[in-house]
Design brief:
This protein has 5 helices and no strands. The chain is mainly alpha-helical. The chain folds into 2 domains: about 15-95, no CATH class; about 105-175. The radius of gyration is 44 Å and the shape is elongated. InterPro entries: PMF1/Nnf1 (IPR007128). Its main location: nucleus.
């Protein structure tokens, strides 16, 4: 029994580097093979090869199963190869994986960027703390002014209710 092999290379993701004709051929092959990858019952095979003996039909069915299994494996390998090709292409495009880039330089640049970011955030935090203290002092001032206003209002109310004594208003105004 001879092995079934395909001379068609697996399609590359994104069509990188292959001709339109090769791409069309691969697409057509995949569409044609898809219908073969569905299972075929023994009865359908026996019906198709009715002039063969039962032993030959059984042998054909086993061969068919082997071919389908082999095709499944080839398609799976093709998909795996496409994925590997895509990963290699992505790796080649990534400057951090490039052999030309210096990892130490990249680490230093990242470290400096992080230090600058921390310095910036510390400055922002300090500004927020200063504003918070400013708001707190304003709140204390507003509360004190409100308390003074309330005390003045009470004194005025007490002045209105109290009989006119000459010494009390002078003492109250000092307060």
């Amino acid at each position: 029994m001879e092995k079934v092999t395909s001379s068609a290379a697996p399609a590359k993701i994104g069509g990188g580097g292959e001709s339109r004709r090769q791409s069309d051929l691969n697409r057509s092959f995949k569409l044609a093979i898809r219908s073969l990858l569905t299972s075929c019952s023994k009865q359908e095979l026996a019906k198709a090869f009715s002039n063969f003996s039962n032993a030959e039909q059984e042998s054909l069915h086993r061969l068919f199963i082997q071919v389908i299994t082999s095709l499944h494996k080839m398609v799976e390998v093709g998909i795996a190869l496409e994925t590997v090709e895509q990963l290699v292409e992505e790796k080649n495009l990534d400057p951090l994986f490039s052999e030309k880039s210096n990892i130490v330089d990249a680490v230093q640049i990242l470290s400096m960027a992080k230090k600058n970011e921390i310095h910036y955030l510390m400055g922002m935090l300090e500004k927020v703390n200063i504003r918070l203290l400013d708001f707190q002092s304003r709140i204390v001032l507003i509360k004190a002014e409100d308390q003074n206003r309330c005390l003045r209002d009470r004194v005025e109310l007490l002045k209105q209710k109290m009989p006119d004594d000459s010494g009390i208003p002078v003492v109250m105004e000092k307060v």
